[in-house]
Each structure stands twice: as structure tokens, then as C-alpha cells.
Design brief:
The longest helix has 6 residues. The chain has a domain of about 60 residues. Strand 8 and strand 9 form a beta hairpin. The protein has one helix and nine strands.
Length: about 90
Amino acid sequence: MLLKWSLQVNLTAFIGWCKSCKWKLNDLTIPGRGIPVSMTRTYNNRKSHVTGMFGYGWTSNVEKRLVDGGTGPITLIDEDNTRHIF
């Protein structure tokens, strides 16, 4: 089995300086015969008030979710915390 890890750099100083920044980083990829397994995280400083599993402003592809209020539309929240209403 092959594991592919990506080397990350400390972006804290640059994130504080940037006014409208978005990064997508691939942390882990496991190829296989079927669908490959991967862990990707996204930072969006316009959504820095949102807490993800990697901290404020960070979301990941494993945090996708559906929200159903029961009486209205269903909302899909994807890996970069964008909301799609159906």
C-alpha cells in the first residue's frame, strides 16, 4: 500500500496579512483499486469565524453534511463551507 503525505508549511503569518485568501491542502491520499481515499482541508479567511476540525477557518472534505430543518429547504454544506440550498 502506498501512502502519500504532503509537507505543510506554517501559513499563520501570511493568513493574517491576506484580506481574501483561500487555500486547499491535500493531507493524505491512499490510492487503491476502487475509489481513492483522501483527506483535503481548505482554509477560507472570509469564513474564519467557522470552527472546523482543524481550527477556525479550516474545513475538510470529511466535514460535508446535510442540514434539514424539517419544514423548509435542505442545505448541503460542502468541504469549503459553501452552502447549497435545495
